[in-house]
Amino acid sequence: MLDGKVKDSKYPVGFHITPLAGLLNDPNGLVKYEGIYHVFYQLNPADTIHKNKHWGHIYSEDLITWHRAPIALAPDAWYDKDGVYSGSAIIIENQLHLYYTGNVIDEAGEKHSYQCLAVSNDGFTFEKKGPIFEHPKGFTRHVRDPKVWYDEKEACYYLVLGAQRENLTGTTLLYRSKDAIVWESMGDLITDTSKLSQIGYMWECPDLIVQKDQALFIYSPQGIEATGDNYQNIYQTVYLTGDFQENHFTPNMDMREVDWGFEYYAPQSFYDENRVISYGWMGITQPEFESSMPTVTEGWLHCLTIPRTLHLKDNQLFQKPVEELTALRKQKQVFTVDQALNTVIHSSQLEILISQPTGLASFDLTIDENLTLSYDATDFSLKLTRLNWYTNQLEERKTQLTSALKNLQWFIDGSVSELFLNDGQSVASARFFSSFVEQKQLEVTFAAQSTQEMVVYELKPLTIEA
Ligand code: FRU
């Protein structure tokens, strides 16, 4: 965003939401309220460690020009004194309702979670109303991240909560309410888990998106074992498609990763008229990688993804960057790559587009000798390789497309990479830290097996206004 600590960063992040200072994690309370997009996010304003969580706040009318707002919720009540954890927003009779989890550590050192409400009449000042229901029996204190929506058909509000049972398995709890005040527990959202190959020990940030004839469930399970190329990160974010009927979601498939990159986690969606837009956090990683990220010494850490629209087709999730981002395009360069190209673009913000309706030939595309996307047209496999800043070793993530790669849209924003393949059917995000970025330019190396055309736009940063 090029303000706060990021303005003077060696890794200038221009079109991703960053904290002014401190640590940012999950997107929270996403909503369009009275014509304004409000993005709240988990924030430790004082340090780059996971403590002291507040709700940071930034807003925009068009997703391009943004305004910083004062911190929306601070951990200053008895029921949230050790952290205002993640949650969501809903508009009820023109009033903005924020549901979140209060984290409390008592004098004996024991942790407690409270599901809480705060309301606002203007979107900028919030009145805390305190806990909304009792902690459910049979669950550990890991019960959090309320996501609320209104169901037109049932004419009621629903709330899902990530939870851990006392037997240390993960689940999602469902509540319903006629008035968003008195909530009735409906038990597990998913009772038929027969399609799921793994459960894990805790499900964070559940999000059920109910459409006319099907439902999409996105959640971030912890404790999933790596299997083949899948689930290589410390924690995962996965999706299920299925039916939501009679207060239960029945998956019709096993879980699939939402993003096969390195740090994607804890996304949240919201409706904008007929669009479903999602932001994720970039992100989750091993504690030693997190504490050694080069921006820690600059006093800030992490960013959100760009906003992505979500679509379902044949039980497949498609994610696309919102259309609005095309307004960031400035300089356009078109390269015809006959086997090899090496060029330096004098910008740290780029969008790279390559398409071939009959399928691309195999290639390697490298940014700053640090991050490489390799495609093998013989088996439609893809590999994203980066230099890890902590180990100084190369590490990779892989995926296999179900059909030939026909188009690629790659956003590079200083130290942030987001890759959209085949119209968003396959998406991978990653952080990378190269010395070229420090010089505010990027080196793009493209080695292709046949002549291909590559379009590169230099991008403007998002605008920040006072
Ligand atoms: C996910 C998460 C949530 C929690 C929040 C605390 O990243 O662990 O479950 O509410 O972060 O910051």
From TrEMBL:
Keyword Hydrolase tagged: yes
* Catalytic activity line of the entry: Hydrolysis of terminal non-reducing beta-D-fructofuranoside residues in beta-D-fructofuranosides
Residues in Glycosyl hydrolase family 32 N-terminal domain copies: 16-321
Domain of life from the UniProt record: Bacteria
Q: A Gene Ontology MF term for this entry? A: beta-fructofuranosidase activity
Looking at the record, the residues that make up the Glycosyl hydrolase family 32 C-terminal domain are 324-453
Q: What does this protein do?
A: Enables the bacterium to metabolize sucrose as a sole carbon source.
Instruction: Please state what the protein is called.
Output: Sucrose-6-phosphate hydrolase
